[in-house]
Amino acid sequence: MNDALVAALVEVERHVARLGWDQPARLFALVRTADLIAAEPALAEHLSVTSPDGFSSIEQDEFHAGTDLGEALARITWPQTVAGCVLAVERAFLPADAEADLPESPEEAALAVAAHPRRLDLRVVVGVTRDGDSHGVARVRDQDGDLLGGADLVPALAAALAHTLE
Questions:
Q1: Where are the domains of the chain?
Q2: CA 68 – CA 150 distance, rounded (Å)
Q3: Of 30-34, 80-84, 103-107, 122-126, which gets the smallest average pLDDT?
């Protein structure tokens, strides 16, 4: 586990959480904080440097996922100065025993999930680095508990993000 990556994900999740729920997908570049300060010394006073090997996240305001997140990510490539990237996205999930009754049509299934009384809303924040590390954290809406986390939290999303670094 990459502690610097996990710390960056927690920081991004807190940043996104301050603006509440029902947000679109948000994309962040990760740069080594030491490299950022070397390139822009004036930023040093604005950055909290807890680890010399830490990351700073830079939101990509122009990112708009639209209706197909996978397609939007497939169009992204990062310059070598970007050490990794993070995506924050909200999704609705159903318990496994409730998924069997979903309609076949993706559009109808999405509507059924949105209206289901047992639906869980999650904010998932997944990050990857050029070194091959990946991790994810998630928060369940309306539950003030700790963040859930793991290296394989959302493997397909981590793989899509890793392709943007190739």
A1: 3-163
A2: 25
A3: 103-107
